[in-house]
User: Fold these one by one.
Assistant:
Number 1:
Amino acid sequence: MNEIEQPSSMDKLEKVIEKKLITPVFQPIVSLRDGGVFGYEALSRVSEKGLFDNVEEMFRCAEKNELIWQLEQVCRRAILKGVYEQKECFDESKAKLFINVSPRVLHSEMFKAGFTRQYTSRYGIDTEKIVFEITERERIEREESFIETINHYKEQDYMIAIDDLGTGYSGLKRICTLFPQFVKLDISLVREVHISPTKYAMIKGMVEFSEHSGIPLIAEGIETKKELETLIKLGVQYGQGFYLARPEKELRPCIDEAYQIILENNSKKTTSNYLGVKRYYVKNIAISALTVPPDIKMENVLSYMEKNTEANGICIVENGRVLGVLTREKLLRQMGGRYGFALHHNREIVELADKNFLQVEGTDSISSVAKIAMERENDSLYDFIVVCEDGKYLGIVTVQDILKKSMEIDVDLAKSSNPLTGLPGNIVIEEEIRACVEDGNPCTIFYFDLDNFKAFNDVYGFEKGDEVICILSDILKQKAGNKQFVGHIGGDDFVMVYRGKPAPDFTESVRRAFEEKAHKLYSIEDRRKNCITACNRHGEVEVFPLVSVTGVSLTNENEAFGTYDEVINKLAVYKKAAKVKKRLVS
């Protein structure tokens, strides 16, 4: 009896393409700060058994037989249709859609035609919600042409992610060339990162790169609790993997267990990761010390101090209140000498305790406590400091720890600050906004962005361009005073976190003040015409209005902010709408 001839890979592939046997599944990309869904990676699965069990094998077969475009087209339509069928859920999640694209396909005019605004709008998806994942695994033949293609998609408001970082041909060079919006860390880096010093160090370095470049990281392939906790500790912004959620046909959130771990680990990450001095609380570096009741005998205290050579001293506490302290140095001095022990061993500790000690609240900033501590008299200059919460004992801090942390803060602030304006950068901005989201107190978050800045920069040069940016920075600093927060995202983008209720015409007052100063940088002729002539992004000559400011805001006066990602996404939408409105009016 003859064996039944099995279909070849080519036969299987042609069947998949002809009958469109692709089913999309969606795996959540989760914020490792708050557990919310930031996006979904769309993956393709063969919907009929007996064909391709391994999807990568199917794509390799398509490339080998020059059918990759046809296969990608089937996959893309299935993905967009899958999202459209869950449009309400997708819109509600405010998530982005990550789509894997081969560099070879990206150049194709047919692919470009398949991702026009008209095409994607048919499926109810805005182009700004779509992220193309460009794999690092493949060599790109014509780099310059590829960069032009990438820029084409960026101009259409698509975003770009570099996939599989850590396995590819060009590594960081490709990131620096393409300026993507996201970088995905390959599973080979993420796997067992908690026990691999090399992987830990590599990801730590990438986190630092991410913070300085403003390009968020997405860790792929998270499969264990330890991996997740380590990535949170390192500061990776987003994660993806079976431990967070498996790919499903339906758009699902992060599983409850992983969600709780993310929340718990972030609550443990106190504001010690925050680089702003105002919110760097002293309670985060407090340590425990021996607490005793006021009637304990001195000989018992001395015995304890002799056994615990690392102890800084003792706090005398009654009903949670600190009545006095006794440092190691003062205790040994009083109990030493020829008659010290004989005179004091049977006395109660409260009799010899120092009642004039430095006590601070846990929510006081490290910088303010350091200043107070160093202003003490010489004989108590290096005594430890008692930290309380609502007046009740919490712990102690040493002067050494205070000074060390103050230096770290200064260094971190210098690293995070924008070199042009001196304002805090992205890390501090994020933490400041998160603080507003968490505490729920009345707050308005402003986003300011310059209009027609590129044209001004092209005509008048970078030095004048920097001067324009500094004008806006100075105006925002002046209006913020000492009470409000101002941050510089980079380029011509600024954020102000205004605690309380700003004036109704706040953004308009910023615009007026800015234009009054910035327009003086133009030539008399350009001011008279109220416009300049420059090349647009496509190299075409165009007339541009004088530089101005777009300011948008989001307040929690009538409705809570939601998550950090929701705040950022809303501000981005508001800014884009405001700029479109300005263009239509002009």
Number 2:
Amino acid sequence: MSLLVLAPIGAVLALGYVAFTFSKLMKYPEGTPEMVSISAKIRRGANAFLKRQYTIIACVFAVMFVILCVMAAFGFLTWFVPFAFITGGFFSGLAGIIGMKAAVAANSRTANACQDSLNKGLRVSFSAGSIMGFVVVGLGLLDISVWYYLLTYAFKLPVQDVTAAMITFGMGSSCVALFARVGGGIFTKAADVGADLVGKVEAGIPEDDPRNPAVIADNVGDNVGDVAGMGADLFESYVGSIVASCALGVAAASAIGGVDGGSITGDAVVTIPMAMAGIGVIASIIGSFLIRTKEGATQKNLLSALRRGTNFSAVAIAIAAFPLVWFMLGVEHIGVYGAILSGLFAGVGIAFITEYYTSDNYKPTKKLAESTQTGTATLMIGGLSLGMVSTAIPVLIVCASILISFIISGGYAEPTLGLYGIGLSAVGMLSTLGLTLANDAYGPVADNAGGIAEMAKLDPIVRERTDALDSLGNTTAAVGKGFAIGSGVLTALALIASYIDRINLIDPDFVLDLSINSPTVLVGLLIGSMISFFFTAKLMDSVGRAAQKVVEEVRRQFREIKGLITGEPGVEADYETCVDLCTQSSLKEMVFPAILALTAPIGTGILLGPSGVAGYLMGATVCGFMLAIFTANSGGAWDNAKKYIEAGNHGGKGSDNHKAAVVGDTVGDPLKDTCGPSIDILLKLSAMVSIVFAGLVMSFHIF
């Protein structure tokens, strides 16, 4: 139990690091008055969107809180669940808000720092990204620690009941993550597609040109989608993997010889994932200070600088986990350490494969850019093919991690122990999340900095430096999405196992029929598989409808505001209208996909019963995993193929090849920044909802 204190210590250290870094960030100068003015417009737009978005989320949470209280009153849940649901959602939303505040404060400061050097620009933008990363792990560990100590020492619940209650509060963070990802993703891609199609393709003006009415909305979208949305997304993966591992570990301890006896105790299996998370914070903080580069650095140098910190953190976790497992479980269960390593290696492997298929440093994206020489059609065919092919190796990596984790943990002798190993592999993958998320979240800051440099007409060398950071940010963002999807699948698998354990806790005599020839399981499999595609289709429709409105508004302003397109002095675009249009459209469009994700597993359960829900979860996870990788990698490759051409290859900017690449990028934008990340959340939210409503489904179902 003494080692369990590493979790709250890690939370305090992470939040202390956030406060220190935020204070340091705010001391950097913002730049010229024009840079400050542009940054203020982006900040106002982002704040306005989040205020309206979280008002809607608060209304949904109020309804859900009442529903959960009613269920608790009828005995389907404990009274802890409604309140844990609220705290999970609150901390998830707070993490996204703090991260976005740092990002919008850092954009002009990054552009200004790039006037001095590339290294300084990297340090400023990475500081903002690290705030996002460490606030997620800090608040996540704080939430888990408070609930664990409260339930254990204040309410004196046995460890089985503690973990059973803790796993349910992940639904709150999952709900916020879905709304944040879907709403932010629709906003950012509607603005991006509208700005690119009319600005670059039709009007032939550069990206981030101040004449484009959608340019501020585009920069706002980078923050509300890629920062606030990503933060909420990985918050729920992080929390979900830890609490699922704790619950599975207690089930394993009980099966082996009693929770408080036998060769494994309940306290020991709970301590390992929570202590690992605390150690991961310490390792990530140290690793963050290793990230720096020299002036004139290439993309390879910049990527190496980021990898240096991440690799250090991963090695530190690998070393520290061994004595932790040995001390808590003994040498006879040291195989659990291998499960942790498999998760770490799986994370590294998925990150590399994602980078290989999406970075213009490698053959696939270069070949995709080359396909523009024969037109847009061949580019689209190549991008779709690339995305489909890219699913193979990540799937095999996750399969290997699952098998290794299960077998090496002793799953054949005791299946629950093998499932605990799978849960710990997800914890291992996410143990360095503070730094991994920092690598991802700094990208939108660099992107905004480039836009500010363009709009403020800074020296071209500044835009070159911000473009170097932005191009690297595209790669790290793609890697971050691959990492989020891979960790999300492992977390979802651990949650599915926890769902089965939850059914057994509610009624030990109930037998789940999971045989492949069970009609309810088969129907559940098909419905779950279909939901992933239907959900993705609705997101694409939403982005398309919202983007159409932006396109029409940009065209209207170019047509009606005299002197705007020619850049006459004193003539300025109406940025606020585009920001407001994106806000209204995205908030309206996000409701149906979010409600669908919440209600589909409940409806399936009422129709098909607990076994049908298990089939649903398996179908959604299998299809959703591959669909998420496909959409994220196709979109990332199209984006970087465009960047590769803009760097002067295959005709450069303004060429027919470039116009074809812009079209590919606009198609890929909603795939990589709206659909892929949201599918990842769909998988985990479905499992969380199934666990919370398991008691209701067991009491009321048709088949």
